[in-house]
Specification:
single chain, 5 strands, binds 4'-phosphopantetheine
């Protein structure tokens, strides 16, 4: 069998230490991991697609198996183009389960229609328990309200948050 390629899809608005924990775990299983940033909801995101990709590249420089790209359209089609055998998702708590279950089964169905027996599998990895309560949404909110997010995000993201909110408050 050839290289085992996995896709780690998401919004990454922005990347957190929880995402990095999942990437480290995935690196022990797969030969190559492509972080796939979805081009959806760009109006609602804090960081532009380009900013998110730059932050991902900078923050994963030490992870040799990891690269970052963006995609649009169906995730399963993108995964097929990349010859990926798996989709990786992090699972923090039971509250994640329903959405994830739905998505995994929908992706399996869509992938099976296109790839038959070689349908893509979704692999769930549990981050360290210290990240159970961590999410990109909460990081943004806590930072915006003046809370300390230093221990939740990699350095480049912290710097980017500072810059982003400086500009934002200047606009108001
Ligand atoms: O980090 P998120 O926002 O939970 O990631 C959701 C994401 C990007 C994985 C999901 O919305 C997605 O796969 N979008 C691409 C379009 C698609 O294939 N949708 C059907 C999924 S069942």
């Amino acid at each position: 069998m050839g290289e085992k390629i996995a896709i780690y899809p998401g919004s990454f608005d922005p990347l957190t230490n929880g995402h990095l924990d999942i990437l480290n775990r995935a690196s022990n299983i797969f030969d190559r991991i492509i972080i796939a940033v979805a081009q959806v909801d760009s109006k609602k995101s804090l960081f532009s697609l380009e900013e998110r990709l730059a932050l991902l590249s900078e923050s994963t420089r030490k992870l040799k198996k990891v690269s970052a790209e963006s995609f649009n359209g169906l995730l399963v089609d993108y995964a097929a183009r990349k010859k990926a055998i798996a989709l990786i998702r992090g699972l923090r708590a039971v509250s994640d389960f329903e959405y994830e279950f739905q998505m995994a089964l929908m992706n399996r169905k869509l992938s099976r229609e296109r790839r038959g027996a070689h349908a893509v599998e979704t692999v769930y990895l549990m981050p360290d328990e210290k990240y159970t309560y961590l999410s990109s949404t909460l990081v943004k909110e806590v930072y915006r309200l003046g809370g300390d997010v230093k221990s939740f995000v990699p350095k480049p993201v912290l710097t980017a948050l500072k810059t982003k909110f400086k500009h934002r408050s200047a606009q108001i």
